[in-house]
Amino acid sequence: MTDATYTGGKEPAKHGLLTVDARTKKRNASEKRFRLYGLAAIGAGVFFLVVLLSAIISNGIGAFQQTFIEVPVYLEEAKLDKTGNRDPAEMAKVSTFGYSPLIQNSLWKVVVDSGAETPLEDGGDVKQMISASAAAKVRDWVLANPDRVGETVDFQILASSRVDGYLKGRVSRESIAQDKNIDAEHLDLVDVLREQGVVHKSFNWEFITGADASESRAEQAGLGVSMLGSLFMMITVLLLALPIGVAASIYLEEFAPTNRFTDFIEVNISNLAAVPSIVFGILGLAAFIQFAHLPQSAPIVGGLTLTLMTLPTIVISTRAALKAVPPSIRDAALGVGASKMQATFHHVLPLAMPGILTGTIIGLAQALGETAPLLLIGMVGYIATNYPEGVFSGFLSPNSAMPAQIYEWAKRADPAYYERAWGGIIILLLFLLAMNLIAIVLRRKFERRW
Amino acid sequence: MYDSPLRKTEVDTNESKISARDVQVYYGDTHAIKDVNVEILDKTVTAFIGPSGCGKSTFLRTLNRMNDTIDICRVEGLIELDGEDIYDKRVDPVQLRAKVGMVFQKPNPFPKSIYDNVAYGPKIHGLAKNKAELDEIVEKALRRGAIWDEVKDRLDAPGTGLSGGQQQRLCIARAVATEPEVLLMDEPCSALDPIATSQVEELIDELRANYSVVIVTHSMQQAARVSQKTAFFHLGNLVEYGDTSQIFTNPVDPRTESYITGRIG
């Protein structure tokens, strides 16, 4: 009945050590095959990773460059400060509509000075080349520097997203045939101005620090406000999930009796870690918004929801870290008369620290990239155009979050937003990379051998 | 046939330090220690011997309530230290363990400096008022642990960096730093080489002057060398307890004789 049945009186042939018998050959061959499978798997993984990273970088790197037009704007006193006494309150009455013609006329002057031949006739014809946000930018500057009214000041005016796309190769003369936002004549002008250095690309800090913009002003949109939203969410998660998670783990691991109840809790914590994140989203909606009446779309709600999601991760990694501390350390501490709490906090916890910190940072990184729960609490779809006024409003006023902002951009129609979505992903990945690096550094720093 | 005891084997005192009456220990449904009655004397080395799983370590750990940390462990009967029931509800195991120190099988220094290893106990018990006093306690403990000369120049070095025998003597120093009255040792030499073992054995004999020492050992030679009293455990029972010389030369119980002559165990 056993596998190794005796096959008769034939003695197995004797081999010297120098000849390899058939069984050994077979075993060696299967080991070789297995190694090849492993190598192939790693190779495939690396290949896909390279494809992914190169796709992200090639699509998103453009978002960090933006096209600007250098325009010396004549700040006409008659238009901007009719009273002439430089009273900011008085000057604030002039809206962006008062500034737009000045900028357009100044740009027209640049066009004329460049000597380009163009069928276009005046400033109103070149307004498609500059961003609709330009007037607001100049106005803010003038209100901050009222003394300069009457002078001609050089501004780096954001080019419109079509001009930007033309410089980046996204927009061509063929593709604008149906496009009412820009004409071929404008592109001809851009060619001339570009050669003269008036139209140029430079690094786009606005993309990193700026606020989101309306659908038609892709060139102006930035990730800054939603980054703050993510920051306030992460602060909430860190402040809640770390102490709660670590305290729960210490209790469960070091103090709780082993019985059915703690077994039940243990199983369910593992189960919670596998619950789809959208479930936490609807839980957050029901508990924090509908029941507790916290404001919609607020980072504090996002943070609370993500805390629920991150807790199991932190608890599991903390318990694993505590388990890994050898029991002899606990014995040693108890043996010299330390109380259980002293043994835990003086000896066990410091040794478990690297594991706890790593788990926490991995949990935070997970929470940072999470989008699905934010769908349900209104952080996806909120157009984050305003910076929070302070720490308090940072937690409570509506905001978006980095992954939500990326999703928002990806579904907008203007192809310029497509590039920004990829750029946003680069920033998000850089954050995750930084967090993982911190985890590694902390691990190295706190790791002690025993 | 055994190493002739180099040290004197007579008991100096008949003062009982720990007395156990009808002690029963259960691990869940397992009855690990059955009806143990024993008087452990002051300023004496008492050895617990017996085959693996006979309950000698379990009984040792009931003497400073280290078994409290095991949920399913239950102790019945009476164990008195200087006439006080150590399982009384009013007794805090933390205070008890300061009086009844313990050294474990595997050297387990904290992953801290040598100084901090020894200073930890006195610190948490508030034995030193200031740094100078603490320094003094640490030095005294390290001298008692017979390791002072080896480590006095590198008190800041990690305790885990010492050799196995040094680590174990450091652990003994750590245990005596809290000025215990009883020192429990759970196979303190089983992880050590013969030279380190003999150093630790010498130390145990010196410690007898100040403490009541209880040592669990697998090595009958060791029991014969270091102890004045020996208790032989078998299957959870205390089979025989008496002067070491008598146990090893003239055992009363046939099971003891079988064990020390190598027929069981």
TrEMBL record, chain A:
Keywords: Cell membrane, Membrane, Transmembrane, Transmembrane helix, Transport
SUPFAM superfamilies reported for this sequence: MetI-like
Compartments in which it is found: Cell inner membrane; Cell membrane
Pfam families xrefs: BPD_transp_1, DUF3333
Alphabetical GO biological process terms: phosphate ion transmembrane transport
Membrane spanning residue stretches: 36-57, 227-252, 272-294, 300-322, 348-369, 421-442
Membrane topology, record value: Multi-pass membrane protein
One Gene Ontology MF term: phosphate transmembrane transporter activity
Primary residence: membrane
Gene3D superfamilies (alphabetical): MetI-like
Similarity comment: Belongs to the binding-protein-dependent transport system permease family. CysTW subfamily.
Protein name (record): Phosphate transport system permease protein PstA
Organism of origin: Alloyangia pacifica
From TrEMBL, chain B:
Keywords for the protein's UniProt record, in alphabetical order: ATP-binding, Cell membrane, Membrane, Nucleotide-binding, Phosphate transport, Translocase, Transport
BP-aspect Gene Ontology terms: phosphate ion transmembrane transport
GO cellular component: a single term: plasma membrane
Membrane-protein topology: Peripheral membrane protein
Keyword ATP-binding carried by entry: yes
InterPro entries cross-referenced by the UniProt entry: AAA+_ATPase, ABC_transporter-like_ATP-bd, ABC_transporter-like_CS, P-loop_NTPase, PstB-like
Pfam families per record: ABC_tran
Keyword Transport: yes
Domain spans labelled ABC transporter: 18-260
GO molecular function: ATP binding; ATP hydrolysis activity; phosphate transmembrane transporter activity
UniProt-annotated location(s): Cell inner membrane
Described function: Part of the ABC transporter complex PstSACB involved in phosphate import. Responsible for energy coupling to the transport system.
NCBIfam families: 3a0107s01c2
PANTHER family recorded: ABC TRANSPORTER I FAMILY MEMBER 17
Name under which the protein is recorded: Phosphate ABC transporter ATP-binding protein, PhoT family (TC 3.A.1.7.1)
Species classification: Bacteria, Pseudomonadati, Pseudomonadota, Alphaproteobacteria, Rhodobacterales
